[in-house]
Amino acid sequence: MEKTQENPIRAILATMFVLAFALISGLSVAVGLYADGMGFESCKSWLVLIAWLAATCGLWSIPFITQKIRKNGEVAMDERGLKIFKNAAFAAVTVSMLYFLCVCFVALRIVGPNGSVSVNVIPAIFVGWIVIFQIALVFGNLILDRLG
Amino acid sequence: MTQQQLADMAHVTRQTIIAIEADRYSPSLTLAFRIARIFDVSVEEVFQYCNGESDM
Questions:
Q1: Which candidate from B8, B19, B33 shows the least CB-CB separation from A80?
Q2: Interface of A with B in 55-94 (CB under 8 A)
C-alpha cells in the first residue's frame, strides 16, 4: 500500500522538467550570443530571467531538501502540504493567465488596435509574470494552509 | 499520545493531524490506514464517512 507507482513517474517528470529547463535556458543564451555576439550585454536579460527561474526552483525545492536533510524523522512536507502546494500552483497559473490578459488589454489601450508594441518589453513582462506568479503562489499557500 | 508523537509516527506534520482532528482535512486512504495501525484499531473506529463531506 505504501509503495505506489507514483514515485517513478514523479522522478521521470522531475528529470524531464530539469532537462527542459536546461535546454530552453541554454538555447536562449546560445541564440542571444549568436545574434548579438559574445558578451554580457547580449544575454543579460536572459541571464536575469534564468537566474530568477533557478532561484524559484531552488525556493520550491527547499521543503523537499529539508525533508531529506532532517535526521530526527520530523516531516517537513506531507500529503496535505503537497495538496496545498498543487492547489496554490493551480491558482497561481490562473492568476498568470489573468496577468497576460491584462497585459494584452493594457497594450491594446495604449497603442490602439492598429499600433504595435516593441519586443523589447517581453523580458520585462516575463519578469513581471514571475513576480506575480510567486506572490500568488505564496499567498495561495498561506490561505489554503489556514483553510485546511 | 501528543499530536507531535502521532505526527512523527504517521510521517506527517503536526498541522496535518490538527487539520484532521478539526475536520478541515480528509486524509488519504494510506494515511487513514497508517493512523489506524498506530492505534491498533480498524479504520472505521478512527474515521467515519459522512455524506456530503468534502475535503479542502
A1: B19
A2: 73-81, 83-84, 87
Point out the residues of chain B with pLDDT beneath 50.
55-56
Query: Is the ipTM, as predicted for this complex, more than 0.90?
Result: no
pLDDT one-digit tens code per residue, A49-101? 777 777 777 777 776 676 666 656 566 678 888 888 889 889 999 999 999 99
Measured CA to CA, the distance from residue B30 to residue B50 in angstroms comes to 19
**Residue B18 contacts A, CB cutoff 8 Å:** no
Whether B27 has its CB under 8 Å from any CB of chain A: the answer is yes
> Using the beta-carbon criterion (under 8 Å), do A148 and B19 form an inter-chain contact?
yes
Q: Is the CB of B24 less than 8 angstroms away from the CB of A148?
A: yes
* A20-50 burial: b if 16+ Cβ within 10 Å, else e: eeeeebeebeeebeeeeeeeeebbebbeebb
Contacts of A83 in chain B (CB under 8 A): 56
